[in-house]
Amino acid sequence: MSYDPDNIFAKILRGEIPSTQVYEDDDTLVFMDIMPRAEGHCLIIPKSPCRNVLDASPAQLNSVIATTQKIANAVMRAFDAQGVTIQQFNEAAGGQEVFHLHFHVLPRYENVKLRAPGQMEDSAVIAANAEKIRGALAEA
Ligand code: 5GP
């Protein structure tokens, strides 16, 4: 399967559609999921194109995992979480819906289930949660 440069995350990277961004460096971008399955649910992507783990280069994987660890620690602090779930899906049969490599970071609490998928969150709530993560990153 080849990379489709018109996937939603490629459009976010090019600034063609809006996103609520919380962090970026030379190689990675982090923004809020618009249908969060937990408060503070965000997505980490490489800035360079690849579909998923199956075609990513070692350099892309290294940079995305390093940023995922940074954001996982930030959401622990930002949301006073008890744990973090990191999800990553590969190809449609593996549960992937957007075909640009991404890792989900989800703050978690004992006995609190993830929300059902596909539910849009209010943009003001997403903006407030992004601000909490930015604050935690700034304090690190
Ligand atoms: P996956 O491909 O890992 O199954 O899931 C893709 C994720 O992208 C979903 O959690 C979905 O809510 C999120 N998503 C889909 N479209 C958009 C969008 O336009 N903006 C943002 N920020 N997230 C999106």
A few lines on this structure:
Helices cover 31% and strands 18% of the residues. Strand 1 and strand 2 (28-32) form a beta hairpin. The chain has 140 residues and is α+β, with helices and mostly antiparallel strands.
Number of strands: 5
* Helix count, DSSP H or I runs of 4 or more residues: 3
Helix content: 25-40%
Estimated structural class: alpha+beta
| Average of the residue pLDDT scores | 98
Q: What is the makeup of the main sheet?
A: 5 strands, antiparallel
Radius of gyration: 14 Å
Per CATH, the architecture is 2-Layer Sandwich
Task: Find the CATH superfamily.
Answer: HIT-like
- Count of discrete structural domains: 1
Low-confidence stretches: none
Instruction: Return the CATH class.
Output: Alpha Beta
Instruction: Provide the list of bound ligands, each named once.
Output: guanosine-5'-monophosphate
Strand content: 15-25%
Q: What is the first-to-last residue Cα distance?
A: 39 Å
Strand order of the largest sheet: 1-2-3-5-4
What is the CATH topology? Answer: HIT family, subunit A
